[in-house]
């Protein structure tokens, strides 16, 4: 990875009025759901050797558990993600409390997706535990499915507690009308590919979420190697809508970067109405 001093950055700026209009009033590789508790994708910079796993062929999802000793859980784990959320989850009551403020973000291409990291603390609280935002990244098409329905894309807002536990808010995206609230993020995707990094300024994470925070909750894993388990998944029930061009921008950078759904086994999926 190139040093910060040599990196070229491109900045995408939000006007205060645009952010206010997009704000929501009702509010899956540190590791990632890939390689760290953030996107779980290996931290591969442009020009460097690619990570040892991929989404196809001999290094694809069906072989992840065979590639490295630390990836074994990908093949043997009993609580893996993503899953197909069944049509009749049980009711629960553990709302998501947001503590998101307008912030600047840095976008970078990991080689498997584009992720955004905040320059100031952003937090959520679930069931009395506070989690700090680490990064947001995307998969296209979606990794999770709802009663067998697959979506055009899925965004993972990855958070980590002081104890190292992970909580991931999953946001599904359906193809429809252009979504102005997401324009800064979408613009940062090609910018992060063209440059070493791209900056997004004045963005509130809450503006990216649907109005309702009703969600499905279950215990799962990172969706990329090393597929570590004990990840608290908070998959929002209501998808956002993105325009055809916006979806195309995502897929032009990274497409088919989604792990297939995994067996639910004896896990319980809870439906949380806020």
UniProtKB/TrEMBL annotation:
Q: Where is the signal peptide?
A: 1-31
- Show the ranges annotated as biased composition (Polar residues): 37-46
User: In this protein, which residues make up the domain named Alpha-carbonic anhydrase?
Assistant: 51-273
Q: Which reaction does it catalyse?
A: hydrogencarbonate + H(+) = CO2 + H2O
| Region (Disordered), start-end ranges | 31-61, 251-274
Basic and acidic residues bias located where?
265-274
Keyword terms, alphabetized: Lyase, Metal-binding, Signal, Zinc
According to its UniProt record, this protein's enzyme class is lyase
Q: Which Gene3D superfamilies match?
A: Alpha carbonic anhydrase
Name the CDD domains for this protein: alpha_CA_prokaryotic_like
Enumerate the InterPro entries for this protein.
Alpha_CA_prokaryot-like, CA_dom, CA_dom_sf, Carbonic_anhydrase_a-class
Instruction: Spell out the protein name for this chain.
Output: carbonic anhydrase
């Amino acid at each position: 990875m190139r040093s910060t001093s040599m990196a070229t950055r491109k900045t995408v700026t939000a006007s205060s009025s645009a952010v206010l209009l997009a704000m929501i009033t009702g509010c899956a590789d540190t590791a990632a759901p890939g390689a760290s508790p953030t996107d779980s994708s290996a931290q591969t910079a442009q020009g460097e050797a690619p990570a040892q796993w991929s989404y196809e062929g001999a290094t694809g999802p069906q072989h992840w558990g065979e590639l490295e000793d630390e990836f074994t859980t990908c093949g043997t784990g009993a609580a893996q993600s993503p899953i197909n959320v069944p049509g009749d989850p049980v009711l629960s009551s553990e709302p998501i409390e947001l503590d998101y403020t307008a912030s600047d973000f840095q976008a970078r291409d990991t080689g498997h997706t584009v992720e955004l990291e905040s320059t100031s603390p952003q937090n959520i609280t679930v069931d009395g535990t506070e989690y700090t935002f680490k990064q947001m990244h995307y998969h296209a098409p979606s990794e999770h499915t709802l009663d067998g329905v697959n979506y055009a894309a899925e965004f993972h807002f990855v958070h980590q507690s002081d104890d190292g536990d992970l909580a991931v808010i999953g946001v599904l995206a359906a193809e429809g009308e252009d979504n102005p609230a997401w324009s800064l993020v979408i613009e940062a995707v090609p910018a992060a590919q063209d440059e070493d990094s791209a900056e997004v300024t004045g963005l509130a994470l809450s503006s990216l979420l649907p109005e309702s925070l009703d969600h499905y909750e279950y215990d799962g894993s990172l969706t990329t190697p090393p597929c570590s388990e004990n990840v608290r998944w908070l998959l929002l029930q209501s998808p956002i809508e993105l325009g055809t061009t916006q979806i195309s921008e995502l897929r032009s950078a990274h497409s088919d970067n989604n792990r297939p759904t995994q067996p639910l086994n004896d896990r319980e999926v809870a439906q949380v109405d806020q």
